[in-house]
Write a structure and sequence with these properties.
Helix content is 54%, strand content 6%. By secondary structure, the protein is mainly alpha-helical. A five-stranded mixed β-sheet has the order 2-1-3-5-4, sandwiched between helices. Strand 1, helix 3 and strand 2 form a beta-alpha-beta unit. Helix 1 runs parallel beside helix 14, helix 1 crosses helix 18 and helix 2 runs antiparallel to helix 8.
Length: 463
């Protein structure tokens, strides 16, 4: 499901724009020539917030992540790499990947205490990251943004073994080699997000849990880089108290003392009441709601989101799962019932505020709310929403979200006759957009879509 939220949220802008509008002028000078886009922007080192929940909660998360899979099957024993881990990157490797991978490996060594280092592409390695030409990648995977496979060292070997039991995670008893496959030609942010999510699963747990508020191990994809919680999970996974081949009962027996050693602050926090299990029907409805429009109608997706909201309430999922259900319902209701959408968004915000480390989820909703405000001609509300959520987008290192918020703010500043401020904000947005969206053509398209919202609001206000 990676990046579906981003793709579908951007569709809101496209749906409100007119395809025959001229492309946004990026501040042409006296000569009338269009300016060149500014250089790509990158995130610097960001402070990492440690896990904020009780160890009793984290212990259950660890067990469910480690001994279950996303398809609700069970993993019989814990498996991991033993000893130093080598990693190589093959294929056509963009410079942004080198930069982001270096930062990620440094974090894994420092925060998770995992001994992992990069070797030359020609060397044998425990982990291979292969950039696969997009056409080849899509020939075998039409839905996944990227994926990891055990017991293979590259694309060619994967193609030979992909229908055999050799690549089934449940058959592993230890990890020796595996490969992560990422399609070429995607944006720098998409590639970075793939590195974080797939390398986390290559090293540690395989499951994703919709209930987690503070983790990339969640298919809601609000978090795009590894969090403090994720690093704690990986550090525990490679702690000396655990080893390959341990059963669920053996790990459960050692985990409380292990977490007390690694996360003493979690011992002092009170655990919330037990989490209800996520019904498979709820997961099915959410997956339907997030399906690409070419596979299922918007009305069917909206109905699925509405069913997910009902199921979440019926099953007592008053956490990230109800909030995410409401978010999906609101997004799919915008065109038909804006008032219902705004009500769903506000209830989702209230739920997310009751959870730790959910500011990035709230910022995603603010994106929707600011889009509505701008299209209604409410410039001041748009500016307030953006200003309140820019810090979360920056801390979450989500350049696509950050760029779009800034584009919305720039358009709102133009509405209130503050053109010099608007120009500065818009130029700032473009540097982030080049990282978040990739191609210059896509950057300009996103800017055009935001400008179209403002133009429609202006035209509606004209007698």
């Amino acid at each position: 499901m990676r990046n579906l939220i981003l793709i579908l949220a951007l569709a809101i802008l496209a749906a409100c724009s007119s395809s025959d509008l001229p492309m946004q002028d990026l501040g042409a000078g006296p000569s009338g020539k269009r300016e060149i886009l500014p250089p790509m922007k990158f995130f610097g080192e960001q402070p990492v917030t440690p896990a904020q929940r009780a160890n009793r909660e984290i212990s259950r998360d660890f067990m469910d992540l480690t001994f279950h899979t996303e398809k609700d099957s069970r993993i019989p024993v814990l498996t991991r790499f033993e000893g130093p881990i080598s990693l190589r990157v093959t294929g056509h490797v963009p410079g942004t990947l080198d930069r982001d991978l270096t930062r990620l490996l440094n974090r894994l060594r420092k925060e998770a205490r995992i001994s992992i280092s990069r070797v030359a592409p020609s060397q044998q390695a425990n982990i291979t990251i292969e950039i696969v030409p997009r056409v080849q990648f899509r020939s075998l995977s039409t839905q996944a943004a990227c994926f990891v496979v055990p017991q293979v060292g590259g694309w060619a070997e994967y193609k030979r073994k992909r229908r055999t039991s050799a690549v089934k995670w449940a058959n592993l008893r230890h990890r020796e080699k595996l490969a992560i496959f990422i399609p070429g030609g995607i944006s720098p942010q998409e590639m970075r997000d793939c590195l974080h999510e797939e390398l986390a699963q290559a090293l540690g747990p395989l499951n994703d849990l919709y209930r987690l508020p503070d983790s990339v191990y969640n298919d809601d994809n609000f978090h795009s880089v590894l969090t403090g919680f994720d690093m704690l999970i990986l550090r525990a996974y490679y702690a000396p108290e655990l080893h390959n081949g341990m059963t669920e009962a053996q790990v459960a027996a050692r985990l409380p003392a292990l977490l007390a050693r690694l996360n003493p602050a979690g011992q002092r926090r009170s655990a919330k009441p037990g989490f209800p299990d996520t019904p498979r029907l709820w997961i099915k409805q959410i997956q339907t709601a997030l399906s690409p429009g070419k596979y299922i109608s918007r009305s069917a997706r909206r109905n699925a989101a509405a069913s997910a909201v009902i199921l979440a309430r019926q099953n007592g999922l008053y956490d990230m799962r109800l909030g995410f259900s409401l978010y999906a319902f609101g997004r799919l209701s915008l065109a038909d019932d804006p008032n219902a959408a705004l009500a769903a968004f506000q209830e989702a915000v209230n739920i997310f505020r009751s959870q730790p480390q959910t500011e990035i989820a709230i910022a995603h909703i603010a994106w929707q709310q600011a889009t509505i405000a701008l299209s209604d001609g409410d410039a001041l509300t748009t500016i307030d929403l953006v200003n309140a959520n820019l810090p979360a987008a920056k801390r979450g290192q989500n350049a696509a979200l950050l760029a779009t918020l800034l584009m919305l703010k720039a358009a709102a500043l133009d509405m209130v006759q503050r053109p010099s401020e608007a120009r500065a904000v818009r130029l700032d947005s473009l540097g982030w957009a080049r990282y978040g969206f990739g191609s210059d053509k896509e950057v300009r398209r996103q800017l055009q879509d935001v400008s179209a919202l403002a133009l429609r609001a202006k035209n509606r206000g004209t007698p």
